[in-house]
Amino acid sequence: MEKTKIKKVLVGIVTSDKMKDTIVVKVERFVKHPKYGKYTSMSKKFKADDKGNTKKIGEKVSIEECAPISKDKHFRVI
Q1: Alpha-carbon gap, residue 8 to 27, rounded angstroms
Q2: CATH (domain of 71)
Q3: Which one, 7, 66, 71, 72, has least CB within 10 Å?
């Protein structure tokens, strides 16, 4: 019986499409502070593979985890 890793799927907004076959996606999370209980919005940017540069700035996209494509790129557009 093989263990199959479940791939992370994240949803975010495209913030840059200037690179060849790569987009930058900003993913926002709503997190509760462990001690004080206040909810805050946290965001992180991920580089994702986008063959043919099909996505444009401002579009909402889903990205999934994959094997590393380059030094910082380990997500692919679904």
Answers
A1: 13
A2: 2.40.50.140
A3: 71
